[in-house]
Amino acid sequence: MALSIGPLRADKPDFVGAVEGVDIAAGVSAEDAANIEAAMDHYAVLIFRDQAIDDAQQYAFSEHFGPMEQATGDIHKAAERRLSLKVNDISNLDEKGEVLRREDRRLQFGIGNMLWHSDSSFKPTPAKYSLLSARAIPGKGGATEFADMRAAWDALDPELQAECMDQVCEHSQIYSRGLLGFTEWTADELALNQPVPQRLVRRHAGSGRLSLFLASHAGALRGWPMPEARMFLRDLTEHATRPQFVYAHQWRVGDLVMWDNRAVMHRARRYNFAEVRDMRRTTVADSAPTLEQPL
Predict the structure, then answer these.
(1) Structural domain of residue 217, as residue ranges?
(2) Is 293 part of any domain?
(3) Position 18 confidence tier, pLDDT thresholds 50, 70, 90
(4) Is residue 119 a contact partner of residue 127, using CB atoms and an 8 Å limit?
């Protein structure tokens, strides 16, 4: 079956595409990878159903789209990792594959994924694409929501667009986790999570469209008093995550969802932490820090 990509929903022809005719486990051609990337420029989120893949196959597929990130955005110590640094462990499992206790610091840190965010915006060069594979899912809950930051930008009042245009935010996981009361950090963790600058408005290299670059990791605006900056960012986030901009993905085992962090925000939704949720994410790095990219 030949590669086929079309809109998932008729009411949103430019946001979220459904992919057919791809077997990621068997590998994809350079031509198919180029067509997938072109579809990403248009849809920003792509859904691949029924992909029975392992970590190596997922990683090999991801490598078609740029340099790969390492999984260095969590607080797992080396002895606590059940996966290699090539793959982000987006689960509620410990190194033995057992469900984490509710009080476990790693689980409480991971709850930050339920805030709206863009992957790795807390790194000097943030993420380009994220590819999340569902290996085991809970019986209920645990959806992932995606917000179209291009449409959110287009819907802003022109005066507000002008106010946003040249702003520089500071991003850190210290900001996002602090929103949830997670405030106890080791010295090494604090050193790794110093704020980094990111543009508030970005121009997408593939489509040319402008979008807001928001995240719960954004906790300051350069040159602004902190309370005013955080209120401004909160107002923008509330605007950008209104229902008309959001798609909620209900997971099935074997789903792989690929999204463009330059064009969308996302968040996980709550589920029963006593049930296994095993998700594996590979992450493609962007080309450069956002301040070095043309606006």
Answers:
(1) 4-287
(2) no
(3) very high
(4) yes
